[in-house]
């Protein structure tokens, strides 16, 4: 995740963070593989794909899918993720999955951040 920021970043105290999140990805859902966790800190000028995804994600990405939204019943896989922390000065706590079309859409918004962890990295 060094391209997105660094765990325990030693940035100067005056460097504002555009995002400071903890990402937890469970690649096999309820399976035996343990989840992977990373702390990601993105400064305003970080150009890594994960940081770009965090900054570019529409606000709806961080909120649960409304119960009355119609979603395609397409299963994208068992992956589950949780992203908590601060993004652009706003607190986020998003649980993501790939259980239907709406959830897959949310996952895709953050795929450059989530997919490397889902692959075990």
Short key terms for the protein model shown above:
121 residues; alpha+beta; Subtilisin Inhibitor; 4 strands; 26% strand; disordered N terminus
**Major β-sheet annotation:** 4 strands, antiparallel
In the CATH hierarchy, what is the architecture at level 2? 2-Layer Sandwich
Question: What top-tier CATH class fits best?
Answer: Alpha Beta
Give the domain tally: 1
- Determine the strand fraction and express it as a percent band: 25-35%
End-to-end distance = 8 Å
Q: Segments where pLDDT lies below 50 for 5+ residues?
A: 1-15
Average pLDDT number: 86
- Following the backbone from N to C, one meets helices and strands in this order, namely EEHEEHH
Name the quaternary structure. Answer: single chain
Main-sheet strand order equals 2-1-3-4
E-strand count: 4
Helix content: 10-25%
CATH topology: Subtilisin Inhibitor
Total count of helical runs of at least 4 residues? 3
The radius of gyration computed from the alpha-carbon positions, rounded to a whole number of angstroms, is 14 Å
General form: globular
Overall structural class, as computed from helix and strand content, comes to alpha+beta
Word description of this protein:
The protein is of the alpha+beta class and 121 residues long. It has helices at 49-56, 101-109, 111-118, and strands at residues 19-26, 36-42, 80-87, 90-97. It has a single domain, classed as Subtilisin Inhibitor. The chain contains three helices and four strands. Helix 1 (49-56) packs across helix 3. The longest helix is centred in the last third of the chain and has 9 residues, at 101-109.
């Amino acid at each position: 995740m060094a391209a997105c920021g660094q765990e325990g970043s030693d940035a100067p105290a005056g460097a504002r963070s555009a995002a400071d999140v903890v990402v937890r990805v469970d690649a096999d859902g309820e399976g035996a593989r343990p989840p992977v966790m990373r702390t990601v800190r993105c400064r305003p000028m970080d150009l890594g794909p994960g940081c770009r995804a965090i900054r570019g994600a529409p606000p709806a990405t961080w909120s649960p899918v409304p119960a009355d939204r119609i979603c395609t019943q397409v299963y994208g896989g068992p992956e589950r993720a949780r992203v908590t922390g601060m993004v652009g000065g706003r607190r986020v706590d998003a649980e993501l999955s790939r259980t239907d079309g709406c959830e897959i859409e949310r996952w895709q918004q953050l795929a450059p951040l989530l997919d490397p962890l889902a692959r075990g990295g």
